[in-house]
Write a structure and sequence with these properties.
This protein is about 30% helix and about 35% strand. It is an alpha+beta fold and about 100 residues long. The protein starts with a strand and ends with a strand.
């Protein structure tokens, strides 16, 4: 199993919009991909904005490529989401799940 991690710092006024985007657009899309297991949204307030860490779990890198494309480490950040962010990771980190 592979855990995929992405971090973004949202504008305070857009943090709720971002969570709604994940729940209504991104996660339903992911659920249709064979090999997608689950997702978590982690959130914390910072002075500059609201930081999110989105963690998804997959059966393999092959499954991740169905979402991310050939470069599995490339972040998938639609223009709509880019507008919500102050800054965000352009790449993701993958971890092998031990337990």
């Amino acid at each position: 199993m592979v855990s995929r991690h992405w971090r973004g710092l949202a504008r305070p006024s857009r943090a709720g919009d971002y969570v709604e985007h994940l729940r209504k657009e991104t996660f339903p899309q992911l659920r249709r991909i064979p090999g997608f297991i689950d997702a978590s949204i982690l959130r914390r307030g910072l002075d500059r904005g609201v930081e999110f860490l989105v963690v998804t779990r997959w059966s393999s890198i092959v499954a991740i490529r169905q979402f991310a494309g050939k470069d599995a480490e490339a972040a998938v950040v639609p223009p709509k989401v880019q507008e919500m962010m102050i800054e965000y990771d352009k790449t993701v980190r993958h971890y092998d799940v031990i337990e």
